[in-house]
Design brief:
Distance between the termini of chain A: 22 Å
CATH class of the largest domain in chain A: Alpha Beta
Order of helices and strands of chain A: EHEEHHEHHHHEHEHEHEHEEHHHHH
Radius of gyration of chain A: 29 Å
Oligomer: heterodimer
Number of strands of chain A: 10
CATH architecture of the largest domain in chain A: 2-Layer Sandwich
Shape of chain B: globular
Helix content of chain B: over 70%
Mean pLDDT of chain A: 81
Largest sheet of chain B: none
Low-confidence stretches of chain A: 424-438
Shape of chain A: elongated
Number of strands of chain B: 0
Low-confidence stretches of chain B: none
Structural class of chain A: alpha/beta
Strand order of the largest sheet of chain A: 7-6-5-8-9-10
Number of helices of chain A: 16
Number of domains of chain B: 2
Chain lengths: ~450, ~270
């Protein structure tokens, strides 16, 4: 029986310093899934990383061994400089807990900003990568599809997403409290993270009059500027641009801050002290926090934007409870499905055995009847096939029905004994082995088992 | 008779203040509307009281400290009511109306002896001098309130520590603008008021400058506001520093106004000469 395990770290389990390093590592390195085939004990694997979390979900039959392998993979992925203290920041969930955790993450209940909409997209992208690397199979495919539908359900049935919840919304709200009207304000976008782009879109929607883009790679800057109908600013000229900018959005991958206290302080007079609002969505931070000490300059990093959102925490707590309820409900449903999975190998073995017998017998019969025409041969094929199907129909239904009960395992064992499915030295095609049955077969069966 | 009107006015101001304070906590338009009307009614009664008193003493009733204080709170409330109609800055009322009530209460504590009509107060100059100055002071009081609001809001945003006021207070830029407009409008009035004062003094006491404590303090206050105006217009000061200076300026006004009336002797104490 495959075990579902999830190992990861998020903003709660790891301090910001670790996450900052994590984000750097994740940006630089290739997706660790490409190395998944090298792992001996892991069957299926899914990897998602955002600037605030990293999660690896996998299935295996030997939990201990495969956990070690995955940890090793993570260590390699994150780089050597982190390894000394990494383990204590990981959380590990098994089975339904893992399922629940994934559902909660996708529904944005586990996010730093509860209800923020980006995480679902990030998981979808990660899933696409996993399918490209072919590291997800029956269980994780099903689980992730289920995850998407749970997230959708949470979003549509609760108000969790409709509050002022996303970071970008919080940033806009804050800008309103500083500037009042935004329609004569200019925004400078430095770097191009997904969150920053989203925030920029938000500001544009609020009617800021101009948006400029600065990026180290010019092509990216140009394409972004085109999208936002703005201008590009050479990365070296950012400081000059501060004179005419009111809102600075940063999300570069730079490990060091790009704007320092002195840079801004000396330019405030040229700005005639008009307020300057820095929104630092980058991890590690791009803006020197000391800039906040300058009069009329306000710096918010991603953690601090939280404070704005927490204003309506009470309302959201109630919605979050409803969302948790939905998640719990869906976890139960998925558990049921996992149980039915127990009988799948037996059913497949049963079908394979019957099919093998049928094929053998048909071959024997047909070899003694060489004069039969093609249509007569195929009629015999069809006849035997339908006899086998009809005979197997009831036992299979019985197995499926029993699978959700606790006595399911007894039925499985019994069936295996009656049909002698456990034999290993016979024809391999009819034996119940631990090899994954052919994908097509498995898939069709699983489809038929969906309720 | 006018004391009844004054009491009604004080009562209305107090009720309006309560309304505005409730409005600070509960964002209900109706509360604000009611509070605004109560304040308006208070101002109307107050006006009647002032007119009655002025008629009975035969000059504008601003000569005793009590009258001056009460006249000032009337002009403050009226200015706020007008500003509210023009700008719709409701929360400002929650800060201005308590100030008006405080001034009203102080005025009842101040000596209120009716000063016999003396030739010095009958001139139209005095009326002009007092009205312009008081209007300027009322505007500076609004600037003071806006500055306090600015500092409160600014501290919340800077420290990233949001209290309930955060959502109720307007944006920093708006508060700063109000501060600036009050200054831009109030400063000329103050200047004109001071000049008329000096001119009038030179006709009555032969010299425009008599080292009267009120004159000195008023000039210091005027300098504070002049510096603030200069820094704002020439250097581009705004925000916290400007708010702090506006608060300092208002302290100067209070000193000029209260301190002198209560503790120091001079022409403006209007003891019977």
């Amino acid at each position: 029986m495959a075990e579902i395990v999830l190992i990861g770290m998020n903003h709660k389990s790891a301090p910001v310093e670790v996450r900052e390093q994590l984000a750097v590592a994740c940006r630089e390195k290739v997706n660790p899934l490409v190395r998944a085939p090298q792992l001996q004990h892991v069957d299926e694997m899914f990897f998602v990383s955002t600037c605030n979390r990293v999660e690896i979900l996998f299935t295996c039959s030997n939990v201990h061994e495969s956990l070690n392998e995955v940890k090793c993979l993570l260590r390699n992925h994150l780089g050597e400089h982190l390894t000394h203290s990494l383990d204590q920041h990981f959380y590990i969930h098994h089975h339904t807990e893992a399922v629940k955790h994934l559902f909660r993450v996708a529904s944005s209940l586990d996010s730093m900003v509860v209800g923020e909409p980006q995480i679902l997209g990030q998981i979808k992208t990660a899933y696409r990568q996993a399918t490209e690397c072919k590291t997800v199979g029956v269980i994780l495919n099903r689980l992730l599809h289920k995850t998407f539908s749970v997230a959708k359900r949470v979003r549509s049935e609760t108000c969790i997403g409709s509050y002022a919840v996303s970071i970008s919304y919080a940033a806009v709200e804050l800008a309103r409290k500083i500037f009042g009207k935004l329609d004569d304000k200019r925004v400078l976008l430095i770097g191009a993270g997904e969150m920053a782009e989203l925030a920029a879109e938000h500001f544009l929607a609020q009617g800021v009059c101009q948006l400029a883009v600065a990026n180290r790679t010019l092509e990216r800057a140009i394409s972004l500027a085109k999208r936002f109908k703005g201008e590009t600013v050479p990365f070296e000229h950012i400081l000059d641009k501060l004179k005419t900018t009111d809102i600075v959005l940063t999300s570069t991958g730079s490990p060091e801050p790009i704007l320092f206290h002195g840079d801004v302080k000396s330019r405030m007079r040229e700005r005639r002290n008009r307020p300057l609002f820095f929104i630092d969505i980058a991890v590690p931070r791009d803006i020197d926090p000391r800039i906040n000490e300058i009069d009329n300059a306000y710096v918010y990093d991603i953690d601090e934007l939280q404070g704005v959102i927490d204003l309506n925490l009470e309302d959201r707590k109630r919605e979050a409870q409803r969302a948790e309820h939905i998640v719990a409900e869906e976890v139960l449903k998925f558990e049921d499905w996992l149980c039915t999975l127990k009988v799948v190998p037996t059913i497949i073995a049963l079908r394979n055995k019957a099919e093998a017998i049928r094929k053998m017998e048909v071959q024997k019969t047909l070899s003694g009847l060489p004069h039969l025409s093609e249509s007569e041969r195929s009629a015999i094929e069809v006849l035997t096939d339908s006899i086998v199907r009809k005979i197997l129909h009831d036992p299979i239904l019985y197995l499926k029905r029993k699978s959700e009960r606790e006595t399911g395992q007894v039925c499985v064992d019994f069936t295996q004994q009656i049909f002698n499915l456990m034999e290993r030295d016979g024809d391999s095609s009819c034996a119940l082995t631990h090899e994954t049955p052919s994908d097509m077969n498995y898939h069709n069966l699983l489809k038929s088992m969906k309720k | 008779m006018e004391s009844v009107f004054l009491m009604i006015a004080t009562f209305c101001y107090s009720c309006g203040t309560v309304g505005y304070l409730v409005y600070l906590f509960r964002d209900l338009s109706i509360i604000h509307r009611v509070a605004w009307w109560i304040l308006s009614a208070g101002a109307a009664f107050h006006l009647v009281a002032i007119v009655v008193r002025s008629v009975s003493v035969q000059h504008l009733a601003v000569t005793s400290p009590q009258e001056a204080m009460s006249f000032f709170s009337w002009i403050l409330v009226t200015t706020y009511l007008i500003v509210q109609m023009r700008l719709d800055l409701r929360i400002l009322g929650s800060f201005v109306s308590p100030l008006a009530v405080v001034f009203m209460l102080i005025s009842t504590l101040l000596p209120g002896d009716i000063i016999p009509a003396s030739g010095a107060f009958e001139s139209g100059w005095v009326v002009f001098h007092v009205t312009t100055l008081f209007f300027a002071y009322a505007l500076f009081a609004l600037a003071f309130c806006a500055s306090v609001m600015y500092l409160l809001q600014e501290r919340q945003i800077k420290n990233k520590n949001f209290g309930f006021l955060y959502s109720r207070l307007p944006s920093l830029q708006r508060l700063d603008k109000i501060n600036e407009h009050c200054l831009l409008l109030g400063f000329p009035f103050m200047t004109v008021g001071l000049i008329t004062g000096f001119t009038y003094a030179s006709t009555v006491w032969r010299s425009p400058w008599n080292w009267d404590p009120k004159e000195i303090l008023a000039l210091i206050t005027w300098c504070i506001y002049a510096v603030l105006l200069h820094e704002r217009l020439a250097v581009g000061w705004r925000g916290r520093k400007a708010a702090l200076l506006a608060i300092l300026g208002f302290m100067g006004i209070l000193m000029t106004f209260l301190g002198v009336s209560l503790f120091l002797e001079g022409h403006h104490t209007f003891s019977v000469e």
